[in-house]
Amino acid sequence: QVQFVESGGGLVQAGGSLRLSCAASGITLRFNAMAWYRRAPGKERELVATISGVGSTSYVDSVKGRFTISKENAKNTMYLQMNSLKPEDTAVYYCNGLPERSSWGQGTQVTVSS
After folding, report:
1. Residues 6+ apart with CB under 8 A from 19
2. For the segment 41-93, what is each residue's pLDDT rounded down to a tens digit?
3. Nearest Cα to 25, choosing from 100, 75, 94, 82?
């Protein structure tokens, strides 16, 4: 059974940083593409960043240059380093496979105050 546990969110002022973690089980990050998603209040879920099995990355335009996706295959854990945070980054952040699996974690809340 695939499971994802997200952590690392919190309340931060605009311009601050956070590092999110995603502990995965039932799926091997070394062999699977993964992604971070977010859902802002009143909006649909959005794909934020992706990382392939070999480590190639991509980002939605709104976070390019500010967010960095990475992973540690030995720990089967994925990360999202978020710098220069903006109020519009406020959302619940989720990790999942790419394409997404049916099982979603509870997510981690990121709130950026202006």
Report:
1. 8, 79, 80, 81, 82
2. 999 999 999 999 999 999 999 999 999 999 999 999 999 999 999 999 999 99
3. 75
